[in-house]
Amino acid sequence: MKLVLAYIPCPSASEAERIGKQLVEQRLCACANWSSMRSCYRWEGAVKTENEWLLLAKTSPDKKDALRAAVEKTHPYAVPCVLFLDGDVNEVYGEWVQGEVMGGAVWSTRSEAKRRS
Q1: How confident is the model at residue 84 (pLDDT cuts 50, 70, 90)?
Q2: Exposed, middle or buried, 60 (CB in 10 Å: 0-12/13-18/19+)?
Q3: CA–CA separation, 22 vs 32, rounded Å?
Q4: What CA–CA distance (Å, rounded) separates 70 from 47?
Q5: What pLDDT, on a 0 to 100 scale, did the predictor assign at position 30?
Q6: Which residue from 6, 16, 58, 83 could staple onto 34, CB 3.0 to 4.6 Å apart?
Q7: How far apart are CA 5 and CA 60, in angstroms?
């Protein structure tokens, strides 16, 4: 099953958490994770090394555009990065992601059928 992972660097844990929760609440992703990292990049002619927080958001392919727009609207960076990585995921997890971003119907139906069997 196809799944999309959004890679979104953030300036702080609180910003990564705020954006991640917003994406989950708006059903633009099923799950968000954030973790600290070090980054090196060129900005305004100088090489910078900074602490950042990496936000990973798991979503379905049809939510990519809406997720990108939501991040670009609220991200504090002047040039936010929203990098999508397409991949294959195990079926049960993919169904859960799809169900969550579509309103829970797919996962609820599958989990109910599983309980009955």
Answers
A1: very high
A2: buried
A3: 10
A4: 29
A5: 97
A6: 16
A7: 8
